[in-house]
Give the backbone structure.
Amino acid sequence: MPENETTAPSLENLLHETRAFPPSSAFAAQANAQPSMYEDAAADRLGFWATQARDLVTWSTPFTQTLDWSGAPVARWFADGKLNAAYNAVDRHVEAGLGDRVALHFEGEPGDTRTVTYADLQREVSRAANALESLGVRTGDRVVIYLPMLVESVVAMLACARIGAPHSVVFGGFSADALRSRIADAEAKVVITADGGYRRGAPSALKPAVDEALAPKEGAPATTVEHVLVVRRTGQDVDWTEGRDVWWHDAVDGASEVHEPVQVEAEHPLFILYTSGTTGKPKGILHTTGGYLTQAAYTHKYVFDLKPESDVYWCTADIGWVTGHSYVVYGPLANGATQVLYEGTPDTPHRGRWWELVEKYKVSILYTAPTAIRTCMKWGEDVPAGFDLSSLRVLGSVGEPINPEAWMWYRRVIGGDTAPIVDTWWQTETGAIMISPLPGVTATKPGSAQVALPGIVADVVDDEAHSVPDGGGGYLVLSEPWPAMLRGIWGDLQRFKDTYWSRFEGLYFAGDGAKKDEDGDIWLLGRVDDVMNVSGHRLSTTEIESALVSHDVVAEAAVVGAADDTTGQAVVAFVILRGEHADRATTPEGAEEVQAELRNHVAVQIGPIAKPRRILVVPELPKTRSGKIMRRLLRDVAENRTVGDATTLADSSVMDLISAGLKKPSSNED
Ligand code: WTA
């Protein structure tokens, strides 16, 4: 039956029985993915990956070995092969006669546009690589990129890859302090930034954060950064450090457009990307070249059913996150895709901006996060109804569990009840998609990421590492190494082993809870560790707690992620004030002032994205006899639930005290 003839079930039915949407025969007949891929990969997993690597990637020196797992848990994939990721993303398409194909339809928030073909991209990336080399960047040197969503951001990443200089992109929403610690950890030689970018209708500054991050600070080591390359985007005034700062247009525009890409070994580092873990210190997740590129290209081709000659693809993620790395830069460009690159927010200048872009560029594949979908649901379906979305044929979701209601809305309102939805589970650490339906093959189910991709082996296990039966719940693990897996945490091999490989012997522990339904399909249930997921962004409870206690007025702090209808989770902080400041919070005005001060402080320490939604001043925190904070009980309070079993508390009256104190209305919510 063609897919558009299946009628959408009511939500009520959906919650009672798991209804699947089989692919239409028309879609299946044209699909890149075939059911036989699962069998092929199961029969010869390494052979399957070797085929992908040869089919989808161009090697300057072909590899002869597929996987070396003797150094587990550090894998080596395709290790005796050589390649260049930027050559694969750009030059080879030009050499194949596709230089005139559009690589990027850039759309600035103010409405300025720029069309970049693969030939343009080759020239730009080559110029930028030459400019970086003239600033002293060599193969192996680290470059930090702190930019908005601009053509230059993609060019900068590829220019680094062209030289074999690992990049470390830091999301523009992180503060100067967060930037400083990432630059220091990576020991970066160059930082690439912009004067600012456009956000919500106004220019916002970026360069001042770089200046601050590089300024000498007591107790901090001298910076390793020799140059700052600055893109002019908004034209706002910037402070200038002579000798250190260089304008992008001065260094890049006049540079030669010929540059020989450096062919690196497959295991050469491609990038470091910092992400939150369960401790306060962000982890520099290390990815290398050959395996990463193979899986990025493979997943992009099959999960999105990309037809590079006819599709227009758009992934709304920022390049500051892993989704931007794998599904804006490396995957789509390796596959020669034409894509939209949008600088701004979905509601500027109006709430239909995204749908306007879909109509304008005839976007056929859209990849976004459940938070964005839920936000659009809130704005109402008459907004997307005002635009022609009929070009859309595949819809993707990533970053957090998608609830069946949002899934159904996405399918019906955005996908015209025909476009298959791929709910893709993966992580910064996995480098590329791991669990997802394959359009044209899988009968999709609202709310479930379903099955591991061909070549990937995932399972749900109990506390003793036993695979749970269908219908059971437990922890998501990955049982076999995969090409795009992280190769470690930058500079901290032990932490890599402890974090991912010590919970269950021989299995990668993802940190996510999951269940298998009666069909054996996997449903992701959210983090089981102290990592929160707010709007699809990973935040660490401990990191925000450390930020709070670094403020003078705070004696102790506990942070939890409370369920939120739109953002998935919201940051809620409980703080005990220091004795001499405790009085300040006794009046509503005083409490509000303290709360505002603390929210600001978190923004300075980590970035605006980490600001707590609510801060509750409390007299005590619930702790076990061994002094561990019982976040479960605080989550009950934050979610307005009856507080659960508190018998293991050292002092069981604490919860009464907290609850009593909170009966007073709090006015510090956004
Ligand atoms: C969550 C983003 C449910 C999960 C690519 C994971 C998901 C964390 C999904 C990684 C999904 C990602 N369904 N949960 N489809 N995709 N997650 O490193 O908790 O920013 O561990 O990578 O996001 O977040 P990260």
User: Anything to note?
Assistant: The pocket of WTA is lined by residues 275, 321-323, 398-401, 423-428, 449, 510-512, 524, 527, 533, 538 (CB under 6 Å).
